[in-house]
Amino acid sequence: MKKANNKTNSQGYKNNFYNSRLSVFQIIIILFLSLSNLCMGETDNTVADNLVRDCGFENGYFKHWGISRIEGKYKVKYDTKIKYEGKRSVKIINEGTIGKGDVCTLPIKIEPNKLYNIKLHVKAENATSGRLVCIFYRPGKNVQPMLFPFKKGTYDWSEYDFSFISPKDATAMRIYLRNDGKGTLWFDQVNLNKSEIQKQDVITYNGQTFLPRPRYGKARENALSPRLCQSNKEQGYIVYMRENPRYLYPESIPQPEEINNGIRTFACPEQYAAAWFMMYSLENLKRINVKIIENLTNAKGDTINKEKLQIKTIKFWPQRTTFSGTDYYIIPERLEKNENLDLSANKNLGFWLQIKIPGNTQPGDYKTKISVSTTGKQVKEISFNIKVLPFKLAAPDNMDWIMYSDSRKRYNDTQLYRYFKDIKEYGITGVGIDYVDKRHLQVIEKIGFKGPLLLSLWWSPELMGKLLNEEGFIDKFKQMVENKAAFLKESNLTNCYCQLFDEPGTNPTKMKASKIKAEILQAAGIKTSCTVYQYESLKALGPVLDADVTGFIGGSEEVNLKYRLLAEKYNVKLFYLGGGIYTGQEGGLMPDRYYAGFLSYKSKASAHVSWAYQRPVGSPDTDFDNHAWHRESKDACITYPAARISDREVTVSTLQWEGIREGIDDYKYIHTLNEYIKKAQAGGFKKEAAEARKKLDELIDSVPWGGSFQCGNSYGQRGNFSNDIAARYRWMIALEIMKLQKTLGEK
Question: What share of the chain is helix, strand, coil (3-state, %, to 5)?
């Protein structure tokens, strides 16, 4: 589920690349030059070290660079006034709201499995999204992309430095400079150089080498305080509380303000409460053990059994940085069983604490202690406090959370039930399924998902070809659909959407086939859904579409309103494609918490959709075992299969899965406050209701739209809507709920 390809668009030129469509003659010339270079091995280089010819755009239109594609109101121009050096730069302007614009090199000859370095200078003005894209070619038609993002915002000329290892059978590549957001990006002095691979920290798997690229980039933490070292020397380690486990890495440095011997959190009855702490070793540590000392107890003597509190370790491990790239980072992700572990000196270990508050728990502050022990060292105790709030969360009737479930045939019936039950337990109300058979549907009905089912039926390229080209096939397909509709009705599953062809927006063949398929489905009484991103494509499919699964509605207020008005016209529901496992989302509570919660509410979506629950490519124990020339060689796993699948355990949780759960709870806190505002208004407390409404509206207004959202990847680079901000907002909402409870006289 990547963004769809974009249509090409350009026009006449003087000092500009183009403004509207390329002529047929120009397209033929571009294709001829491209194919000539690929087939004959020409690299079009004049400088020995730099493999990019005309790196500063000095030599004229289309001589050494070309235009890849344009969608929306994008323009590509030379700029003789704003440049890093030389006569000019190239700029890509977006005067609209959505789409993309690319400028690219001609094919460049490269060697397989070698280290290359790209340096370029970029300037930005109100930019919301841009990236450098490398497309690799091997003998045949297959291509493999690598993506390197640029910073958002407005900034003067900045040097970007990207390194990559070419795929093991690549022979050529192109470099694309892309603006796929609002604003303007300027580019100048693009350099591609071959380098020597330094063996330290590289990973080689099945002949392909992977290069380390730390997620925190060049951001650095303050050096370890000598005072902290001295005060914890005898203990041999430092316990600290980092606000977001996403900012934790094996080499992280505890900061003085993070030192705290107490952990505090809050939750409602029937809600999960989670917390975490970190350990930094000052020496080699053996057999680290963490456990709960006693039951959680409040001042009145009410208790929560300590056995309900789970302790897990936060596992660091290497993951590809993109779906098909050859670099990796080491990130915190999997939440694994708490077992006696060893830890090398000057390294980190994270511990995850989680409890589901029993439904009959009385409000109050519940306290216990956690012990940390390691061989030969004194036991350390940490206080743990959970404030149980005096209300339960209300679930909205007009909002769903849908998970592409990726269920596998390998599970027996009990394991399949456990698999889907785990999904529902975290607040997911609907699922996408690939196997629309009696066995799966019976399990889903038994578990009781109230929300929609997204059915992946009949969406292969072969079917698309038959719908468009095979005489008499449409009648056969109609019968297939009618049979499936009867089967769904017999299974008591009527809230189903059958997906059309994936991401058809800029593909005329897919659009035509999607429309035919949609008409047949709707005639049989089956609702339709599709990943339609582009506005014009949604406009074209709107009359035969029941739900659009798109991330575009979260980009900005302007785009959101535009899409909602179009959806209202055709009575199409908008499902927000947000928190999941797209690259960069893994290894943290953010950004998935933000997408599934605050942004979903702000966007007014009918549902939030997550992709994908468990989709390992090859073994789930490594991310490096698939080198196929495919867009998605990386594992796509919100959760992972358990090491030993049993009737009791089929899934290993992750930080991103916990983030989705936290986001769903954030939404429920907002919804619960809205319900109390209604109660206060109905009870005659209009002033109090208005005050609460004003505070909630101001809070939601301050949540950034997706186009300006910055997740943050480290202690020194926290972004503009971090996990601690979301937690603080949740607490502010809880305070307003409790105020209205008091106003209404509730105990």
Answer: 25, 30, 40
